[in-house]
Amino acid sequence: MKIEDWKKLLSILDSQYSIFLLEYPTMKNGRNKKIRENSERKVYNSIQLSCNWITDYPEAYQLLTGKDNTDFGRHIIWDEFSRPNYFGSDMSEFLEKIKDKIKSLEEKSDIE
Q1: Any domain includes 107
Q2: Which domain of life is it from (predicted)?
Q3: For the chain, how many structural domains are there in total?
Q4: CB distance 10 to 106 below 8 Å
């Protein structure tokens, strides 16, 4: 992946993460069923869109699930990542990994 691809992915995932953070508490503690259901739909939509973007880039999927991990281990990480109760903390960590990756690619391009 090129640095532009990483930046694009970071922007999209950060946007989806913001939607998730806004809607997740409402999904859990909304005033009534209609509000909770509406927020739940937005939460699952942001998770699904994030997962779709990550799987479009094999390098991003590897960064999330661990390059040296077994297939079973990757599956477990991916399964947990796509659940709302884990998504918040896992996405936060993943966004930091992407920022570190971008920084390392920028430093590498400055050297060359």
Answers
A1: no
A2: Bacteria
A3: 1
A4: no
Quick: pLDDT tens for 26-46: 999 999 999 999 999 999 999
- Of 77, 46, 73, 53, nearest to 64 by C-alpha is 77
What's the CA gap between 73 and 88, in Å, rounded? 20
Q: Residue 23: which of 36, 12, 44, 39 has the closest Cα?
A: 39
Asked, for residue 105, whether it belongs to a domain, the answer is: no
The answer to whether residue 9 sits within a structural domain is yes
Contact 17, 94 (CB under 8 A): no
Q: Which of 49, 90, 64, 47 is nearest to 6 (CA)?
A: 64
What kind and span of H or E run contains 82? none
For residue 93, give its domain range.
3-100
Q: Is residue 21 part of a domain?
A: yes
Place 77 in a pLDDT band, splitting at 50, 70 and 90: very high
Query: If you ran DSSP here, which 8-state letter would residue 68 be given?
Result: T
